[in-house]
Amino acid sequence: MSRLTDYLVCDFLGGPRPWKFSWVINFQKAGTFLFLLSLMVWYGNYSTEVWIYTAMHGSYGLVWIIKDIAFPDPGWQRRITIGGGIMAFTGVLGWYWVFGWLLIAGVSQPDYPLPDAAWYCLSISLCIIGCVVMIAADAQKFFTLRLQRGLITDGMHRYVRHPNYLGEIMIYGSFVLMVWHWLPVLVLAWVWLGVFAVNMIMKEASMSRYPEWAEYRKRTRWLIPFVL
C-alpha cells in the first residue's frame, strides 16, 4: 500500500520532476480560504455555519503554511512528477475542498444532534485543539531531530506515538461535524485507513530498530492516551 501511494503521488506517469510535494500541498492549504470565500459569493450563502466552517478550514490552511515556513517537514521536500502532483491533488487534497462545497452549495442541510450553538462550540474546540496538537508534535520532532537523532519518547510523544496524526484527525473530524454529510466521512475513512494508518505502521517499523522501542511501545498508544 505504501509503495502504491508513493508511486501515485511521486512517480505517476514518470517524466520530469518540476515541483516539490510540499508545493502541491501548500497550494491546496493556502488556497482554501480564497476557495471557500469564492463559493460563498457564487452561491450567495452567508449563513452562520458557512462562516464558521470557512474560518475553521481556511485558518487551518494558513496555520499549515506558517508551520511549513517555520519548520518544514523533510518528507514533503521530495521532487515529484507532473502526474504525481495531479494525482496528489485530485486523489486526496482536492477532496477536502468538496467538504466546503457540500455545505456552501446547500447539498448538505445539517440537522445537528445538539443545539447549533453547542455543536459549533464542539467543532471549533476540536479544530483549535487539533491544530495545537499537530503543531506542537511537528515542532518537537523537527527541533529535536536537528540536535539528536533517535527515538522521541517525551513531550507530545510521551503517551501516544503519533500525536501529529492525532492532531490532523481532530482537525478534519471537526470539519466533518460542521458539514454533517456522509461523503466527507467516506473521504476521511479512505485517508485515515489508506494513508494515515499505513504511514503509522511504516513509521513504527522504522522506530523498532531502536533498543528502547519495546518499552516505549508497551507504555504508549497509537493515538489516544490509555485507549487506542
The oligomeric state of the chains shown is: single chain
Helix % is over 70%
Please state roughly what percent of the residues sit in beta strands, choosing from under 5%, 5-15%, 15-25%, 25-35%, 35-45% or over 45%.
Answer: under 5%
- Low-confidence parts: none
Main sheet strand line-up: 1-2
**Number of individual domains:** 1
Mean pLDDT: 94
> How big is the Rg?
18 Å
The counted number of beta strands is 2
- Count helical runs: 8
From the helix content, strand content and strand pairing, which structural class follows? mainly alpha
Order of helices and strands: HEHHEHHHHH
What form results from the Cα inertia axes? globular
Q: Please report the distance between the alpha carbons of the first and last residues.
A: 22 Å
Major β-sheet annotation = 2 strands, antiparallel
